Amino acid sequence: MHTEPNRVCDLLGIRYPIIQAGMVWCSGWKLAAAAANAGALGLIGSASMYPDVLREHIRKCQKATDRPFGVNVALLYPEIDKLMEIITGEGVKIVFTSAGNPATWTAFLKERGVTVVHVVSSSKFARKAADAGVDGVVAEGFEAGGHNGREETTTMCLVPMVCDAVSIPVIAAGGIGTGKSMCAAFALGAEGVQVGSRFVMSEESSAHANFKQAVADAKEGDTLLTLKKLTPVRLIRNRFFDQVREAQDRGASVDELKALLGRARAKQGMFEGDLDEGELEIGQVSGALAEVKSAADIVREIWEEFEMTRKRLGEG
Hints:
Layout: H1 7-12, E1 18-20, H2 29-37, E2 42-45, H3 51-64, E3 69-74, H4 80-89, E4 94-98, H5 106-111, E5 115-120, H6 123-131, E6 136-140, E7 146-147, H7 155-165, E8 170-173, H8 179-187, E9 192-195, H9 197-200, H10 209-217, E10 223-226, E11 233-236, H11 239-249, H12 254-261, H13 265-271, H14 295-315
């Protein structure tokens, strides 16, 4: 059990300073509850949910755990006002926001007693988030899966710069899937870590078995950042990725890329398991992932390796 003072644990009411990322099509109530019960912070990923579906996931999670959990909200979501009304109406006390201006909704949430953490890809955005009143920031490096920053700043470069830029707690994300990488993030000044790709490969993840196998089969270099004209996203190379790359190479317009992307392409890949035509979002750390485990085992293994690594370095 974590016994040393830690601002992330204190802020979120959790045992270990580990956050299970709220990932599109992978982070439903089962994963969030399992991560929470293991002592981490579980997050429901709302970006792939209609408002009534989010309400259902929140209520099921509340029944499955008495530990803190939260909701990740992409601020670009078209019906965000409905999501925010549901989140606050259902009594959720922790919200992680991303992909948008934190000034838009932070005050609304804080007035209703919600702890707000915002995901950033630069120290400039970290300062803006702090100015908007958020309680903490996630500094997410270029290695991360899913939607990503255009700056392409790696986690090792980004985290110390964000820590220097703000006084609120900093949670590191991007390329973190082990206790060793968690220890490295703490050495850079982070006080917690957000883990995504490793939890995709959990038993409780709602990712399709085909997608989990694709992640297990992925080797170093099998993911690339693409769609920079729209919103940059890190994907496993497949037929859809090749179509995107071909379109970009010939100078396709934003409208052409949007048409190629279409609707529900991420659902097609990650949730329905179409490995050829679907969008397969995952981080660079996928090259080191081979085994599906329970969320509880993932949290325990990360924490035990973190403690062992700190002890080993302390004895050096």
